[in-house]
Design a protein that fits this description.
heterodimer, A: about 280 residues, alpha/beta, Rossmann fold, six-stranded mixed β-sheet, 9 helices, about 35% helix, about 20% strand, globular, B: about 525 residues, mainly alpha, ABC transporter involved in vitamin B12 uptake, BtuC, Arc Repressor Mutant, subunit A, 2 domains, two-stranded antiparallel sheet, 2 strands, about 0% strand
Chain lengths: ~280, ~525
């Protein structure tokens, strides 16, 4: 099923790897993925990803369901083991520069019934600064409050998180990552299921990040808003289909290659199944 | 609603409670050492012998009368006059506090049943330890340290098996727990049968691990339980923030470099600690209840992790105290059962009355909400009915002309599809709330009624206009949508709406209705 590349894959311009296997890119690249393959239960979900994130730019990660967008982010921050390949943030392995990388997981990944309020969640982004065994002091609560204000959620600081709307919950997650003051942000579907006000708030924050010279990679599912919100795009369908500035890469042909590949694969499977049924 | 309006006060009291937690710990550490200091603990093998005799004689199966204690005994027990009672109760309470604390994290981590696996899996360990000691030193099989060590190892093995099954097969967690729990327990029971057939072996002394026997605890047992509980409380307090992160968002913690695996193992070790030390007093069948019930009850009272842990610890300590007292007063009462029953009573009370999630407070909120909606509906109906007559009403010195126009019940009824009983109820309540007054020709709005009627109608129309302008909803559909929302519009939202809509309607004191207001609507 997974043998052979998805049809219609244009070969992206990839940097040549150095003999010692380290990345070729200058160490300034916020995220450099080299030859990464990821498998779940021995079934590959990402093949041979080679990618350099441009510094100071907003990049959308786009692809159909099951194309490995979330896996790409999780494998980059060592949450999912890589079968092969190498990931560098600013030229270093992730575990050496964790504080420079902000990760915003999918909203659905936690139990929102948990007995904490919005401020508590944001403070979790500061736990590493607070350190082992120390309680969250007023200083850090004030700091967390500052980031809640930044996402326009100061009025909801004391609210239990299940009493927030989906968009408000997403903003709390965003504030938690912002509190870390990272240099590159990886966000998994921050725009899913949010209200218009939250969408605007997130876009403004992304722009502020870019103005501050920071990079952000955002898994995004709404193709219509990609050119409006982002500078770069990474088209993904188990393999890297294309990557580059929106104006060059976000073309109908590339999109067809990204999304059509899935359909073609389905056609193939369907064809094989009918063949098998015919035989039995 | 009211709690949301006063967030600062809530936060201050919670900070206070957190400080209380850190202050209380050294205090708790200091108390038991003082109590233990009084009489020297008896030597270990004596105590076991003593326990075994009281354990067997107190629960002779042929004797099934309940002996009611005299007043003297009751007051002795409650006032902790006897050293023995004091020891037993102290052990039970510490265990209850420890179990409530660590149980909170297990509940939130959705691992409540791990404690059950540990306790059930410990049974073969107890049997094997007994057999091993009996082989090496015949007649000394009931050495408590050996038995607890056996229990600990077997319990840990049980947890490892669960993790292994989950990891290396596709079997889900609940199935893995059930398999390990029943297989280990089955093996334990089989070994017990073998022990019973041995010439020297009597299972009597071992059975207390299944059902528990608080009354027979000695000071040595209590110091063990006390140490284990204090360890649990100390570690949970120190790692409070880390455990909280682990339970809420393990992946995020891992991405930040927290050693979530080790934290998870530490939490597991605390559960094993509590489960094994609780074996003796509450028994392996019921020890899980001490881990689950107090935290589950605590959740009904609070939305904060810190207060939930403290409430769970207090409820755990209280139910253990009740169980200990009952078991001291009635020789035939199993302390474990009473502890669980007391916990259940706390749970049911919390389920019903818990201020945050209890059923009754929730029903009360629902009820007052419905009342508010009914009141708004009535006032808006009256306003819409009176609005056309406002211009013709004589300008009056008393203020709002809305309050000067009399109307009848039938007029209101003709404009709404309400039943006559519902309208009567609404109007009665409005009268009681001081919104309406009865006059000779029917009813009138009072000053406050007129004011609120204007506000309600305004909110409704603002929302309708907003929906038409910005959500592309047809004017003839908008009324019902607005009906649902207008009751929850808060002042900040209203001012935002006003801003959005005023571009279209500059004179926004009272916007015109965007759809015709026919009678009988």
């Amino acid at each position: 099923m997974t043998d052979g590349p998805p049809p219609g894959t244009p070969s992206p311009d990839l940097p040549e790897p150095l003999p010692d296997g380290t990345a070729t890119h200058p160490s300034s690249a916020p995220l450099a993925i080299h030859d990464m393959t990821v498998a779940y239960h021995r079934r590959p979900v990402l093949w041979d990803i080679d990618y350099d994130a441009p510094p100071g730019q907003l990049t959308a990660i786009v692809g159909p369901n099951g194309s490995g967008k979330t896996t790409l982010i999780k494998a980059a921050v060592d949450l999912v083991p890589r079968a092969s390949g190498d990931v560098r943030f600013f030229g270093s392995a992730y575990h050496k520069v964790r504080h420079r990388v902000g990760y915003v997981p999918q909203r659905g990944s936690v139990d929102w019934d948990f007995p904490v309020n919005a401020l508590d969640v944001v403070a979790m982004g500061l736990y590493k600064q607070i350190g082992w065994l120390r309680p969250v002091t007023r200083r850090y609560r004030d700091k967390a409050m500052h980031y809640l204000e930044r996402v326009g959620m100061a009025d909801y600081a004391k609210r239990q998180i299940s009493q927030l709307s989906g968009g408000q919950q997403q903003r709390v997650f965003l504030a938690r990552a912002l509190s870390q003051q990272a240099d590159v942000y990886l966000m998994d579907e921050p725009f899913v299921g949010v209200d218009a006000a939250t969408e605007r708030a997130i876009v403004i924050i992304l722009q502020e990040l870019r103005e501050a010279g920071k990079a952000a990679l955002v898994v995004h599912h709404d193709l219509q808003t990609v050119p409006e919100y982002f500078d770069h795009v990474l088209l993904l369908n188990m393999r890297l289909v294309a990557t580059g500035p929106i104006t060059e890469v976000f073309t109908p042909e590339n999109l067809r290659a990204t999304y059509g590949g899935k359909l073609a694969l389905l056609d193939q499977v369907g064809h094989r199944m009918t063949l098998n049924q015919g035989r039995s | 609603m009211s709690s949301l309006r006063h967030p600062p006060r809530m936060s201050r009291s919670l900070c206070g409670r957190r400080r209380w937690l850190t202050l209380a710990l050294p205090l708790v550490l200091a108390i038991p050492s003082g109590l233990f200091a009084a009489p020297p603990p008896p030597a270990d093998d004596h105590s076991i012998a003593a326990r075994v005799t009281t354990g067997t004689s107190g629960t002779s199966l042929s004797d099934n009368r309940i002996r009611w204690p005299g007043w003297e005994k009751i007051s002795d027990t409650l006032l902790l006059r006897q050293y023995n009672t004091r020891i037993v109760l102290l052990g039970a309470i510490l265990l209850g506090i420890g179990a409530g604390t660590v149980g909170t994290f297990m509940l939130l981590r959705k691992r409540s049943l791990v404690g059950d696996v540990v306790s059930h899996a410990s049974l073969p360990g107890i049997a094997i330890a007994f057999l091993a000691v009996e082989l090496a030193y015949p007649g000394n099989g009931r050495s408590l340290p050996a038995l607890l060590l056996g229990a600990l190892l077997a319990g840990l093995l049980g947890v490892l098996c669960t993790i292994g099954i989950r990891r290396f097969s596709r079997i889900k967690e609940d199935t893995a727990l059930a398999i390990v729990l029943s297989v280990f327990f089955g093996v334990g029971i089989a070994l017990f049968t073998i022990i019973q057939k041995l010439p020297t072996g009597q299972v009597a002394g071992l059975q207390q691990f299944i059902y528990g026997q608080t009354a027979s605890m000695t000071s040595a047992d209590v110091s063990l339980i006390g140490l284990a509980s204090l360890l649990v409380i100390a570690v949970s307090t120190a790692l409070f923030k880390e455990f909280g992160l682990l339970c809420f968002d393990e992946e995020f913690g891992r991405s930040h470099g927290w050693p979530t695996l080790w934290l998870d193992l530490a939490l597991m070790a605390l559960v094993v600690c509590i489960a094994i030390t609780g074996l003796q007093s509450v028994g392996l069948l019921l020890v899980v209840a001490m881990l689950i019930i107090p935290p589950a009850a605590a959740r009904f009272w609070t939305d904060r992790l810190g207060s939930m842990t403290i409430i769970a610890a207090v409820l755990g300590g209280l139910s253990a105290w009740l169980g200990g007292v009952a078991s001291a007063l009635f020789a035939r009462f199993s302390a474990g059962a009473v502890i669980v029953l007391a916990g259940t009573v706390f749970f049911l009370v919390s389920l019903a009355f818990g201020t945050r999630r209890g059923l009754l407070p929730r029903m009360r909120r629902q009820w007052s909400n419905n009342r508010r909606i009914g009141r708004h509906d009535l006032l808006r109906a009256v306003y819409e009915m009176l609005e056309p007559h406002l211009d013709s009403a004589p300008p009056d010195a008393s203020g709002d002309p809305l309050g000067d126009i009399p109307f009848t019940r039938d007029q209101v009824l003709s404009r709404r599809s309400w039943s006559a009983t519902r309208l009567s109820r609404l109007m009665d309540r409005g009268t009681r709330d001081g919104l309406l007054t009865a006059v000779t020709s029917g009813w009138k709005l009072t000053a406050s009624g007129a004011q609120e009627a204007r506000l309600v109608a305004r909110n409704h129309r603002l929302w309708e206009t907003y929906l038409i302008l910005h959500a592309d909803i047809a004017p003839n559909h908008v009324d019902r949508d607005a009906d649902l929302i207008e009751h929850v519009l808060e002042p900040d939202l209203v001012s935002q709406l006003l801003e959005t809509v005023s571009a279209r309607y500059p004179q926004m004191d009272m916007p015109p209705s965007p759809h015709p207001l026919e009678p009988g609507h």
